[in-house]
Specification:
Blueprint: H1 6-22, E1 35-36, E2 39-44, E3 47-48, E4 53-58, E5 65-69, E6 75-77, E7 79-82, E8 85-88, E9 90-91, E10 93-100, H2 111-115, H3 119-135, E11 153-156, E12 162-166
Parallel strand pairs: 2-12
Antiparallel strand pairs: 1-9, 2-3, 2-6, 4-5, 4-10, 5-7, 7-8, 10-11
Length: 171
């Protein structure tokens, strides 16, 4: 008597092993530091700031790229990149922190009007937009976006890495 049950079971396990093997993401490069969960909340006097970019710069981990983007609650979950590996968290150690958020200037000129501008009109329009951007109010002081002028530092540890930055303290 033939066992018709064995063939489907073998096919199932072969397919399962291929599926598991194919779903492996990029592997963290050897020698990369361990990463630990980390969140950063950015507020202005208690009001959450959405759309800010937070970056960590490590002296001891120069190849680590750790960044986060704040959501509507002002909270960024930090993620670290090592080669093609991306993981939730930040490496241990002291990190210089930058926070940036570019102001938004709305261009009321229609696309059709821009398409019909002469070269000099287009240049003048671009200069006008650049002046408006430079004059726009900033939610986050420019000094916090430059590693040379930002005074923010965090010490990432094995746990408890929930930090808050109140930008009103830097105005």
């Amino acid at each position: 008597m033939k066992n018709h049950f064995a063939f489907p079971v073998v096919v199932f396990f072969v397919a399962l092993s291929l599926l598991i093997g194919c779903n492996r993401g990029p592997v963290k490069p050897a020698g990369s530091p361990p990463i630990f969960p980390c969140t950063v909340t950015v507020v202005n006097g208690g009001t959450p700031i959405q759309g800010a970019v937070i970056s960590f710069i490590y002296a001891e981990h120069p190849t680590a790229a750790t960044t986060g983007f704040t959501d509507a609650r002002g909270i960024a979950e930090m993620r670290s990149v090592f080669g093609s590996f991306v993981g939730a968290g930040a490496p241990l150690g002291k990190a210089k922190v930058t926070v940036t958020k570019q102001p938004v200037v709305h261009d009321t000129t229609t696309q059709e009007a821009r398409d019909n501008m002469s070269e000099s009109e287009a240049r003048a329009h671009g200069e006008q937009m650049a002046r408006a951007l430079a004059a726009a109010p900033r939610e986050v002081p420019e000094s916090l976006g430059n590693p040379a002028t930002s005074t923010i530092e965090f010490e990432i540890q094995n746990s408890g890495n929930d930090f808050t930055i109140d930008v009103s303290q830097f105005r």
